[in-house]
Backbone:
């Protein structure tokens, strides 16, 4: 028999959260809690105790008790207060004193002779004494003496069952044969913006005077417009020099005319690459000015990281071995056979010189971090090696734990999950194409109630420069409103590509296409920000509601409620701490009025069946007095296709006057 | 950056079967296959290839290709032929040649100029050549030459798409950057009896002449009776000397009279302990005679391992430190406060002398293995430390891989699962108390379709000496028949405690009790084996049907089919290889006739909707011609409450005459 002590009788298994056997960390933001569950049990009938251990990286373990739920399932909880990495694990042991006390209760109730059992208890308290010091040790020793003393059997029995004795004894258990869970699981803790934020995407070159190429200074002059809608993040497509070779013309035409602006994603020219600025946008100084002006208005600037090169990129000359070469000596352009994208050279992550390459790519991000950029939207991360992301994001977060990475991957589900596991703070989702009630309920139930919620944070986009979904094409303005409110309330993080969104631009390049006609990706646009049909004010109301209602700051409380009409969807989010409850009802049919009966899960939103409550529409400002779970709604898309209700409870004041808070 | 090569782009995760992150082995029997699934994918659009690797302990890895299913899920399979331990894992890689060929198809279809692409293919074939030897190397080199040769573009394009080129190239992939799954998962391979067997439990002391204590020789004289019912395993409760101290009398009374037989589970007296035989049963020679006579009839003898001692057990004197001591110096008897079991001393698995204790306990089993016992039914394993079982079973199976361990644990589900994970070959289940259709469907769906099926093999008992379930108490003979057939067909392994079962003994000690009146556990019984109401013949028919129908030899194919009557349950088992299908329909109401319509899942049982088929009742010998999924059944419990149908398909003979096979 091996030398190890095999007498550790407690089993700890089925730990949640735990991603892929602990291979990947879970994610939280500062101030959030981590609720841990596990199966904890031993053979036989002895009582078991367990603690949850957690520590900040480099710190000491902190213990908190775990409590049994049902069927050998236990739970515990801890809060993460600082950015960086935390660890957690579990320890459980057979608890002799707890077992003895539990049995004593039964023995005393049955009127048995407990003379010998009291001596057993005294011995267990002696052992606790040996593990204690100071006052508790003295106290435990005194109790042990009393248990075996010459007091009456009755008074000693009484002492044996006292709560305070159990409480002190429980602090000094015998953990020599405790089982420590084999893994130390990791939490990556981000700042709250990784969980909650409203993004606005714009092309700076379209914000100048009519007929002129817009600049960072022009954007800075319009920051009040963006800020007045209540956005937190201003996201800019690539700001780097645009290549000339094979430059694309308007509507992605293969040949560009002189003066055509080209696609910002064709990165690199004689004027520089990923660490340079497209000269027509301004200077580095202008850029820094824009960043500081945005910050002054409570907004951060997010940059686009697109690891690909135009044929004119300096890397192509300086590091030809960072690209794949064709047998004829030319560099391999991007392809999706039979389609060819000759304006783009993909980077070869398997290059023999991969170490230098990966270091350089990482340095692109740290360069911009040096320019006070702490949010990156990463273009097509699923076409770059997963191990690169895990390494690069891990390294960067060691030095800059406040960095946020949004993965722009619209691809197969497991690939998207893998990017989130590898370290991306947020992920684009299929929201853009989930339009029916069944689709939305199924998808968001998966994202918010399964293990996925511990590693993938959704960021919901009703449109992007690449995607004008059919629902918006055919649904018009009511569709834009519905999708806006769905994105902003289903997702604590969401974003729009504007001004195309607030101006309800919904003309596709051709029928069946999800590309915009005259897409801003290939040309400079002029936007009429004064359009009276603009959704500007509505967006401002939606974002104000988001800020003011903590229920909308997280996705974990999302719950769908049945409605007897397939076109109406209803869901709630709640904030435990404040009691804040948001209830959304949306008409998914942009063409017709629909009505139906909700069946609210009152328990989920913390209400009694008997008490009236008010629902206050934060968009239309209407108020309705409801009672119980069954309530009627009717939504006309031509007026407003959604209710964004805040639930208000009845409060009785000192002067005996009821109102709704 | 660390020195490791991070360019391994393939991800392998979500591997099934895999128990608790590979902490525990899966179970199979010789000849069974292991079907392995995993998520396998890489970034981007390159084609991926993967192999499943397996090896017998001490042997070399064997590779077999894995095939994609859907949504990045892949599958592979291997067969385990010998007892012992096998290992399996997965390797996947980005496959350049496969990617190139896939893209060539699209390029050629689109009529593109493939001049350079052919050169790329030639280069890839050159690389394959370098990894090949002999004829394949020469062949690959020749093809590479042709691809870059001066043949017409058309003929070279054709060559590039040839299946035989792809087939040979696929044998020599570049796996330098392959990803090997991080774990080597374990299979414990048992002999088929661990999966399929019918058990019969009897108390030898009741098989003697009237008024006399039965012996092994008496049992040997009745072996034909047991064998004629078709059982595979003859299981004997403990055969060791029974203690005198605190011996229990009939019906578990606290005081025994002189001559009372006592409980066989109160093990140990002056005459010996766990390696000795109760003198009244005979000698070791008699025991060995019984074993060989049973073997001659195709039956194995299973012994009971009950690690507990009567106060008279030799261990008590020789190893007082193997027991827990009370403060008054006495040894702690078994308790479930306020109940006391003073005739039983539990063994202290946490003893300071645990190494010697555990060795001795293990030696009990190897002692009986020396007497040609290879099946152990272990009494209350859940009151002994899990690590003991994992160690002891693991050690024994190293030397005796044919040993089978049945866990008699009726306790909380996770504890039962843990015993199975720790190494028990088979487990008692909750079947004994699952009586309604809903209960049976829910429980057996869990056991046979979830991950549980890979580590827990159910052994179903309608009764035991400890358990006379209420269903049998109130349901009479029809209830016995139904529960027999359910046990024998839901479970590839099942058992009965006889002759109490075949004689439908159903009188409880008192109302509300599950104990038998005048339980054989505490006294010698006389059984009238000639009782005309005996289920002997029916049991023989059921066990014959089990033997003859491979569908009943495993639980993995179990499938329930809807019936529009809550009292009727219907399920099938199928054997892929032979095409054998068994269909059971049971009336769960022992009192009334019930009828209903089945809705058969024809696909699950391998039938077309349009072709008639015959169902042949192997118990009542009736035959019914059915077509399609919807079929009528009616079962009168007073006649026979179950159909045990064998499905017979129509076969057309050479002489154009149809019959059902």
Residues:
């Amino acid at each position: 028999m091996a030398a190890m002590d095999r007498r550790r009788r407690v089993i700890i298994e089925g730990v949640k959260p735990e991603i892929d056997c602990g291979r990947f960390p879970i994610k939280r933001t500062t101030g959030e809690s981590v609720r841990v569950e596990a199966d904890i049990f031993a053979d036989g009938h002895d009582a078991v105790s367990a603690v949850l251990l957690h520590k900040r990286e480099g710190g000491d373990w902190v213990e908190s008790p775990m409590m049994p739920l049902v069927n050998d399932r236990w739970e515990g909880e801890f809060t993460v207060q600082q950015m960086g990495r935390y660890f957690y694990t579990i320890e459980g042991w057979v608890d002799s004193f707890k077992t003895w006390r539990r049995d004593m209760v039964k023995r005393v109730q049955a009127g048995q002779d407990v003379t010998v059992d009291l001596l057993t208890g005294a011995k267990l308290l002696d052992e606790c004494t040996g593990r204690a010091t100071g006052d508790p040790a003295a106290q435990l020793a005194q109790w042990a003496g009393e248990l075996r003393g010459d007091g009456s059997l009755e008074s000693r029995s009484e002492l044996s069952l006292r709560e305070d004795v159990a409480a002190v004894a429980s602090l000094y258990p015998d953990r020599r044969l405790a089982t420590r869970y084999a893994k130390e699981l990791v939490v990556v803790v981000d700042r709250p913006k990784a969980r909650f934020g409203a993004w606005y995407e714009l092309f700076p070159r379209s914000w100048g005077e009519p007929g002129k190429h817009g600049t960072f200074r022009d954007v800075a002059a319009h920051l009040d417009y963006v800020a007045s809608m209540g956005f937190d993040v201003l996201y800019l497509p690539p700001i780097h020099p645009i290549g000339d070779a094979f430059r694309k013309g308007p509507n992605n035409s293969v040949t560009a005319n002189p003066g055509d602006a080209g696609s910002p994603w064709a990165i690199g020219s004689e004027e520089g690459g990923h660490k340079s600025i497209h000269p027509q946008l301004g200077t580095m100084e202008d850029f820094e000015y824009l960043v500081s002006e945005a910050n002054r208005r409570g907004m951060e600037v997010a940059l686009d990281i697109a690891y690909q090169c135009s044929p004119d990129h300096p890397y192509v000359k300086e590091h030809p071995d960072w690209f794949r070469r064709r047998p004829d000596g030319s560099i391999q352009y991007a392809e999706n056979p039979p389609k060819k994208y000759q304006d783009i050279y993909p980077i070869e992550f398997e290059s023999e010189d991969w170490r230098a390459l990966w270091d350089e790519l990482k340095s692109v991000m740290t360069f911009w971090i040096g320019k006070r950029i702490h949010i990156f939207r990463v273009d097509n991360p699923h076409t770059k090696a997963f191990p690169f992301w895990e390494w690069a994001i891990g390294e960067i977060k060691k030095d800059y734990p406040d960095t946020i990475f949004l993965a722009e991957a619209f691809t197969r589900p497991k690939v998207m999950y893998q990017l989130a596991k590898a370290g991306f703070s947020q992920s684009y989702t299929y929201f853009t194409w989930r339009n029916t009630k069944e689709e939305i309920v199924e998808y968001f139930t998966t994202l918010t109630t399964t293990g996925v919620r511990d590693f993938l944070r959704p960021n919901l986009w009703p449109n992007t420069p690449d995607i004008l979904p059919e629902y918006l094409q055919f649904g018009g303005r009511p569709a834009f409103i519905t999708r806006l409110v769905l994105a902003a309330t289903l997702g604590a993080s969401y974003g729009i590509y504007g001004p195309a969104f607030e101006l309800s631009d919904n003309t596709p390049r051709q029928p069946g296409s999800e590309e915009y006609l005259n897409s801003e990706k290939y040309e400079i646009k002029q936007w009429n920000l004064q359009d009276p049909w603009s959704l500007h004010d509505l967006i401002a109301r939606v974002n104000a509601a988001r800020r003011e209602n903590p229920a909308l700051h997280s996705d974990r409380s999302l719950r769908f409620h049945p409605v007897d009409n397939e076109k109406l969807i209803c869901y709630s989010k709640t904030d435990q701490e404040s009691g804040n409850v948001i209830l959304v009802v949306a008409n998914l049919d942009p063409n017709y009025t629909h009505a139906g009966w909700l069946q609210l899960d009152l328990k989920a939103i913390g209400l009694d069946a008997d008490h009236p409550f008010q629902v206050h529409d934060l968009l239309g400002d209407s108020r309705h007095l409801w009672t119980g779970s069954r309530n009627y709604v009717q939504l006309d898309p031509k007026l407003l296709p959604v209710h964004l209700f805040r639930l208000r409870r009845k409060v009785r004041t000192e002067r005996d006057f009821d109102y709704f808070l």
Observations:
- Chain B touches chain A through 59 residues (CB under 8 Å).
